[in-house]
Design a protein that fits this description.
Elements (H helix, E strand, L loop, with lengths): L1 H32 L3 E3 L8 E3 L3 H15 L15 H27 L3 H11 L1 H9 L5 E3 L2 H7 L8 E3 L2 H20 L6 H24 L8 H25 L8 H18 L3 H7 L10 H16 L12 E3 L4 E3 L12 H12 L15
Antiparallel strand pairs: 1-2, 3-4, 5-6
Helix pairs in contact: 1-2, 1-9, 2-3, 2-9, 2-10, 3-4, 3-5, 3-10, 4-7, 7-10, 8-9, 8-10, 9-10, 10-11
């Protein structure tokens, strides 16, 4: 029945993709009329681009998932052996995804601060983590062979370790990371939707391989975990593919923060329900779209952004490249501020970065101040 439900899910995903395509075309003029649009700052044309169009695809995704809910459980309806734990797993995942979509839309409309972006995903993860706990799911992790060999002269580690409550902290951190990771690597046409499409397709392939390994044995340990991941991923991949079609260069729509949070939370949910939250971290490496070293660059970008995040250096929230309309090219982003606005730690940071030539600094006098 699980495999039949998977085919039904794939069919509904295709229907959802068609609906997304039609709705995006219909809502482009509506968004512009409601003044819900942005301007592409790296283009000659200043034509309005509808935003956040991700909310349309997210709404279609939720409807597809709601319609699909009965199908995996038809054979158990009216029976005493109804798998309530499996139903709760799906519902808890949808609750977390719905709250992430709400957070993203609120961010698009209200421009939330970073502390809210860290707090809300943490709270929205509670239903999912609670169901994971009451369902008696494992908190045991496999110790990597290389780690056991490295510490073997000092301590003998077992193959597996039950880390108990720490595992729930880890899963909560995965959710917060995923909901913000897609949002951080953004700013180029098709980048948010493109990286999400790559990751979701990769994770779907991973799940299909695992399902194939189990064969037709639906009672095998782990079979259901990968099937439920596919239940969430197939509609998401279908809707994201349509959104990417409109968002790729030259973009006709912007996805907005709504899509970024929806995408990140969906990937986090499937990894937790599918029991491969650690493996998901590997799938975030292909966030390249147009960049072959995203993980390294994201780490450097985070360290480079610390003075900005903690307001040590006056700097715009989004460091967009500076566009030159005459040459139709972009150059490095710059921020202009008074020297008196610079804090002590910020001054130290600028001095260090300037000395090792990773920061361009130009001092000039304006209105009698440096």
């Amino acid at each position: 029945m699980s495999l039949l439900s998977l085919f039904i899910n794939a069919g509904l995903s295709a229907v959802g993709a068609v609906i997304c395509y039609r709705l995006i075309l219909d809502y482009i003029p509506i968004f512009i009329a409601r003044k819900m649009y942005g301007n592409d700052q790296c283009k000659v044309s200043n034509a309005p681009v509808p935003e956040p169009m991700g909310v349309i695809c997210a709404a279609v995704y939720l409807i597809v998932m709601f319609v699909f809910i009965p199908f995996p459980f038809i054979e158990w309806i009216g029976m005493d052996t109804f798998p309530y734990a499996k139903l709760l797993a799906i519902l808890s995942g949808l609750i977390s995804i719905s709250t992430a979509i709400l957070l993203g839309f609120a961010d698009d409309m209200l421009d939330l601060r970073w502390r809210h972006k860290l707090l809300f995903p943490t709270l929205s993860s509670l239903p999912l983590l609670m169901v994971y706990y009451v369902s008696g799911n494992s908190t045991t992790v496999i110790v990597p062979t290389i780690v056991r060999h490295l510490v073997q002269p000092f301590v003998v580690l077992p193959i597996t370790i039950n880390i108990s409550f720490i595992y729930y902290i880890f899963m909560g951190m995965v959710i917060v990371f995923c909901t913000n990771a897609i949002n951080i690597l953004a700013g180029i046409n098709g980048l948010e939707s493109g990286q999400s499409l790559v990751i979701s397709a990769s994770v779907s392939l991973f799940n299909l391989v695992q399902v194939y390994r189990f064969g037709a044995d639906e009672n095998a340990a782990g079979f259901w975990h990968h099937i439920i991941s596919l239940y969430f991923l197939l509609p998401f991949t279908a809707c994201t593919a349509v959104l990417f079609y409109f968002n790729k260069y030259p973009s006709r729509v912007f996805v907005g923060d709504t899509f970024c949070y929806w995408s990140g939370m969906t990937l986090a949910v499937v990894s937790i329900l599918g029991h491969f939250s650690k493996t998901l971290m590997l799938f975030f490496i292909p966030q390249f779209s147009s960049n072959p070293r995203p993980l390294f660059l994201q780490t450097i970008n985070f360290l480079y952004s610390i003075p900005q995040l903690f307001h040590l250096v006056p700097c715009p929230r989004h460091r967009l490249p500076k566009y030159d309309a005459e040459s139709d090219t972009v150059s490095m982003s710059v921020a202009e501020f008074k020297k008196s606005q610079l804090k002590t730690l910020g001054s130290i940071f600028i001095t260090i970065c300037r000395s090792i030539r990773i920061l361009y600094v130009e001092e000039f006098e304006k209105d009698g101040e440096m």
